[in-house]
Write a structure and sequence with these properties.
The chain is an alpha+beta fold. It is built from two helices and eight strands; from the N terminus they run ββαββββββα. Strands 3-4-5-6 form a four-stranded antiparallel β-sheet, with helices on one face. Strands 1-2 form a two-stranded antiparallel ribbon. The radius of gyration is 15 Å and the shape is globular.
Length: 112
């Protein structure tokens, strides 16, 4: 991903994943089913580019993240795509880590 601001070119790299902001919007347990969305996530890159609509899912294989998608001809099509698979994996790990931290924080504070 290349970001151009003024005359400076910027390429997203591994260290940038550590500096992103992740906002987790938990979905209440009573609203979820076994294999369903657990949270909606907004991610801010470079302090100014916000991508809304990542989803954290739970399945029998555990947690995973899906990028924002829109319905098209009976199926969902990703509207944000990260070509670099290593960076995508790091982003997914960061989102899940933030989700687990948020879930833990809510549980020790007595919120459900």
């Amino acid at each position: 991903m290349k970001i151009e601001t003024s005359n400076e070119k910027r390429i997203l790299n591994h260290s940038d994943i550590e500096n992103i902001r992740v906002k987790i919007n938990l979905i209440k347990e009573m609203e979820t089913r076994k294999d369903s969305v657990r949270a909606i996530v907004n991610v801010t890159f470079f302090g100014c580019l916000v991508i809304k609509g990542y989803r954290i899912w739970y399945s029998s294989r555990g947690l995973y993240v899906s990028p924002p998608a829109t319905p098209h001809k009976g199926k969902f099509v990703e509207i944000v795509y990260m070509e670099n698979k290593v960076l995508w994996k790091k982003l997914e790990e960061k989102i899940i880590e933030c989700y687990q931290s948020e879930e833990f924080s809510k549980s020790i504070n007595g919120q459900t």
